[in-house]
Design a protein that fits this description.
32% helix, ribonucleoprotein, single chain, 4 helices, Aminopeptidase, five-stranded mixed beta sheet, Ribosomal protein S18 acetylase RimI, Acyl_CoA_acyltransferase
């Protein structure tokens, strides 16, 4: 694999904040930097709830992938959810995202993760990539969200 994955650490916060802000701008997520920092910092400090990987060289990353962890009785243990996955527009469609995800799946499996889930736009061009990597749509299911941040 040519594309490197690095587990993000606290000293990567400033680089990550810019990439996360770009992802949020592209996808219409409204979040201020204070909230973004509060959400990222625990993951960079070793929280068991998730992990962020920098894609590409640590000093000049081309993207990031954030995984949150949970527990699934159905899957038989720890499961992961791709919370955010972003590659810089200038280097998209060069295979870096696919390489990163291809390396991440077996690493998570070896770490005991039983399933990895992701949410994707049904019209997204990366749908074919996800299918090649073993992700399948669950026709009987859809992701539903109750936003508990607001009463």
């Amino acid at each position: 694999m040519k594309t490197k994955l690095h587990m993000a650490r606290a000293e990567d916060l400033s680089r990550l904040l810019g990439m996360v802000a770009s992802f949020h701008d592209e996808t219409g997520i409204e979040q201020d930097e204070t909230t973004r920092t509060a959400a990222l910092a625990p993951l960079l400090e070793g929280s068991p709830h998730g992990v962020v990987y920098i894609i590409g060289p640590r000093n000049a990353p081309v993207g990031y992938i954030a995984i949150s962890f949970g527990w699934s009785i159905e899957m038989g243990g720890i499961d992961g959810f791709v919370d955010e996955f972003w590659i810089r527009p200038a280097v998209r469609d060069k295979g870096m995202g696919g390489e990163a995800l291809s390396a991440l799946v077996p690493a998570l499996r070896e770490a005991g993760v039983k399933a990895l889930h992701l949410e994707a736009d049904r019209e997204s061009p990366v749908d074919a990539l996800y299918r090649r990597l073993g992700f399948e749509r669950r026709d009987r299911y859809c992701l539903m969200t109750a936003d508990l941040r607001h009463p």
